[in-house]
Design goal:
The protein is built from 2 helices and no strands. By secondary structure, the chain is an all-alpha fold. Helix 1 runs antiparallel to helix 2. The longest helix has 30 residues. The chain starts with a helix and ends with a helix. The mean pLDDT is 86.
């Protein structure tokens, strides 16, 4: 395994862990605030939208570079 493969793998694993942790934080925030079903939807929708944009940017860049 060369350094480029290691960096690509490390970036993918690191970002997956970071995004998973951010989703856990959003869930915990909704749970602690005793938000109802609508509150969970709003929190995951609003705060998760930034994560979706980050992932979508990566996918779009990959598609355009093909």
């Amino acid at each position: 395994m060369n350094i480029d493969d290691f960096e690509s793998l490390s970036l993918a694993v690191g970002l997956t862990v970071l995004i998973s942790f951010m989703l856990f934080i959003i869930y915990d925030l909704a749970k602690q605030s005793k938000a109802g079903r609508y509150g969970y939807f709003v929190l995951f929708g609003a705060l998760g939208f930034g994560l979706f944009g980050f992932v979508a940017k990566s996918v779009i860049m990959r598609i355009l570079n093909l």
